[in-house]
Design brief:
The complex is a heterodimer of chains A (104) and B (377). Chain A contains 3 helices and no strands. With 104 residues, chain A is mainly α. Chain A starts with a helix and ends in a 41-residue tail after the last helix. Helices cover 55% and strands 18% of the residues of chain B. Chain B contains 14 helices and 13 strands. In chain B, the strands form 3 sheets. Chain B has a 6-stranded mixed β-sheet with strand order 5-6-10-7-9-8. Chain B is elongated, with a radius of gyration of 30 Å. Classes of the chains: A mainly alpha (104), B alpha+beta (377).
């Protein structure tokens, strides 16, 4: 007997939902198995006093985002607004925006 | 209830047959829709996983970094400043950090050289990150050449390479002894790159930072909270990466939904006219269009989500890799831990399925309330 089209659709939907559910389970499993490597990274950050993630290695201000200084935005020449592709993907470091209140 | 379900199933059967009659058009529609969801979900999954990982890792960063600024640029900081900071009540420890960038002309990559008090980095030896080992094809036991500030060449033996799992923090790192670091860069022993300060009570950190700023006005203090906020801002939906890609995808989706909402094709209008002429009610036609919107959007959403997950967590964001690599020679090859939750799926559902389904119903209602005779003509 031929399956009704609606039954076929619900079956496909069910399979897709099942796959998605499986991926959620995979995510939970990976979070558990990645605990040891994550701890290794946490230890490395603590031991070396690291301040940044190694995401973009092409420019100093994108390699160490949080330590970038106030004047690197325009780099070295007047027309070079942004040399590096990653520079346009990241925002200004938060530390460069703050103004300390005066102490009494 | 049974009757109600059967009625909807009959309408769904008819809707699916109607969709299959325009196979090519609808296949193209589902493909484009899936692609948009795939793009949105890929960026969302990638950014939130990285944001989560950054927040876990950088919680261990020093509570405060003190840099010396001269004419707006960072300069080496006198080690003598350490005593003045240590004297501030609440400071538990202070450490001089020696680090810098080294351009390797052999491969054209920049390394981060950092001094570490480590047994593996005695004078003459180094520990390198996975990225350095990969670009230089060097493994433990082999040597790497470094050019000193005087032009001489020194060879340092690799004692250890960091695992690729730690690439997110160590890919371009070269851990080196203090002697070798000073030999390469020529920095005086009275200076360090910056100072890492740890405090007893984190609540006192802003006050301590103010005191440092007061006693050492030529310094800049970077708090751990600001480091965390910097990374949170990058991977936030308003941040650069997300905004750049989301903007394109959302715009494509708006055009797509607008096209749907702005009207029906002549063929679709004729179909509605015929259905009304043979006795379908306006509410049945709206139900049919509701199911049509749901079939297209729900299947596209689920397929897009599955594909995005595979793309981000199985192929390591392969399609967007060139964007992330930029012009860098040395880039981290890391596998990110999938930190996903129901809220991300729900937000994608409300961003895509709901507006699309609504957009398909409105023009259909407009066509359904017109006289069938005038629609068919």
């Amino acid at each position: 007997m031929l399956m009704r089209k609606s039954s076929l659709f619900f079956l496909c939907l069910f399979i897709l939902t099942l796959v998605l559910g499986g991926l959620f389970t995979h995510a939970a499993h990976r979070q558990k198995t990645d605990e040891a490597p994550l701890q290794e990274k946490v230890n490395l950050v603590h031991r070396l006093g690291l301040t940044d993630l190694c995401l973009f290695t092409e420019a100093s201000y994108t390699r160490h985002l949080s330590l970038a200084d106030f004047h690197t935005a325009f780099q070295n020449s007047p027309m070079a607004l942004e040399h590096f592709p990653s520079g346009s993907l990241v925002t200004h470091p938060q530390a460069a925006k703050k103004i300390y209140e005066k102490v009494d | 209830m049974r009757k109600w379900i059967e009625r909807h199933r009959n309408i769904l059967d008819f809707t699916l047959s109607s969709l299959l009659r325009r196979k090519r058009k609808n296949a193209a529609l589902v493909s484009v829709y899936t692609l948009i969801v795939f793009l949105l979900a890929s960026v969302l999954f990638f950014a939130s996983a990285l944001r989560e990982e950054a927040s876990i890792l950088l919680k261990e960063a020093p509570e405060m970094i003190v840099q010396k600024l001269v004419a707006g640029r960072q300069e080496p900081i006198p080690v003598a400043y350490m005593e003045r900071i240590r004297a501030i009540r609440g400071v538990s420890s202070i450490k001089a950090r020696l680090w810098g960038y080294y351009y390797d002309p052999v491969v054209g990559a920049n390394y981060t050289l950092m001094v570490a008090d480590d047994l593996d980095v005695a004078p003459g030896s180094i520990s390198v990150g996975e990225g350095v080992s990969r670009v230089r094809l060097a493994s433990p036991g082999e040597t790497l050449e470094f050019r000193t500030y005087q032009g001489a060449t020194i060879e340092l033996e690799i004692k250890k390479t960091f695992s690729s799992e730690s690439g997110l923090v160590s890919s371009d790192l070269v851990l080196i002894s203090e002697d070798d670091f000073r030999k390469i860069f020529g920095t005086s022993e009275q200076y360090a790159t910056d100072l890492a300060v740890r405090v007893r009570n984190p609540k006192e950190l802003p006050t301590i930072a103010l005191k440092v700023a007061e006693i050492l006005p030529d310094t800049r203090q970077i708090l751990r909270e600001e480091i965390l906020r910097t990374y949170d801002a990058i991977f936030n939906w308003r941040g650069g990466i997300l905004l750049a890609i989301l903007f394109g995808a959302v715009l494509a989706f708006i055009i797509f939904a607008w096209d749907k909402a702005s009207g029906l094709s002549v063929e679709e209008k004729r179909e509605i006219g015929i259905l009304k002429a043979i006795g379908w009610e306006t509410s049945d036609i709206i139900r049919m269009k509701f199911w049509e919107g749901l079939v297209v959007s729900l299947s596209s959403l689920l397929m897009g989500l599955v594909l995005a997950y595979v793309h981000v967590f199985f192929t390591s964001f392969m399609l967007f890799e060139p964007v992330l690599k930029g012009w860098a020679v040395l880039y981290p090859a890391f596998k990110i831990t999938p930190f996903i939750d129901g809220a991300q799926v729900a937000s994608l559902f409300f961003l895509t399925v709901v507006p699309y389904t609504v957009a398909t119903i409105i023009p259909c209602w407009r066509a359904a309330i017109v006289d069938p005779d005038s629609v068919m003509r």
